[in-house]
Amino acid sequence: MTQPLALVIYEKLLPGTQLVNRLQDIGYRVLTVPGADALMASAEKEKPMIVFADLVSTRAKIPEAIAQLKQNPATTHLPVVAFADERDAALQNSAREAGAMVVNEAALLPHLQQFLDQALQLD
Questions:
Q1: Per-residue pLDDT tens over the stretch 102-113
Q2: Cα 8 to the chain's mean position, in Å?
Q3: What is the pLDDT of residues 64-102, one digit of tens each?
Q4: CA neighbours closer than 13 Å in the CB half-sphere of residue 11
Q5: Spatial distance between the Cα atoms of 65 and 113, rounded to a whole number of angstroms
Q6: Burial, 60: exposed, middle or buried (Cβ in 10 Å; 0-12, 13-18, 19+)?
Q7: With contact defined as beta carbons under 8 Å apart, do 9 and 17 qualify?
Q8: How far from chain centre, in Å, is Cα 94?
Q9: CB within 8 Å of 2: residues ≥ 6 apart
Q10: Which of the two ends of the chain, N or C, has the fewest CB atoms closer than 10 A to its terminal CB?
Q11: CB neighbours of 14 closer than 8 A, spacing ≥ 6?
Q12: What angle do CA 49, 55, 59 make, to 5 degrees?
């Protein structure tokens, strides 16, 4: 059986690598995306089951990249779980408006399975 694919975009090493490792531990193949500009092309080409995005970036506006994913007919169906520190309320709100499920960075790993279940729940 083929393992489901998760795309992960992050700059901060610690939460990003921990997320990648945890996803692999629970049976996901993981492809890290080098930057927001590559997110759309990677999602279209690789056809992941889910996208995880660290909202904090020095190189790009991640909420804008999420909005592009959600506006593209080929990727609009992809669930996006975005994470940031709880003090980044404006960043979290912009990601919600773009169509992402937003979670507190500190809660991401301890509750990863619940977030996956919620994000992948069929309507």
A1: 999 999 999 999
A2: 6
A3: 999 999 999 999 999 999 999 989 899 999 999 999 999
A4: 11
A5: 24
A6: middle
A7: no
A8: 14
A9: none
A10: C
A11: none
A12: 110
As given in the structure block, the two tokens for residue 68 are 């592009």
Tokens of 64: 């804008």
Query: Which amino acid appears at position 52 of this protein?
Result: F
Structure tokens given for 90: 């404006």
Tokens of 74: 């080929």
Which residue has 């509750």 as its token pair?
111
- List alpha helices for the chain, DSSP H: 13-25, 36-46, 62-71, 89-98, 105-108, 112-120
Place of tokens 């995880």: 52
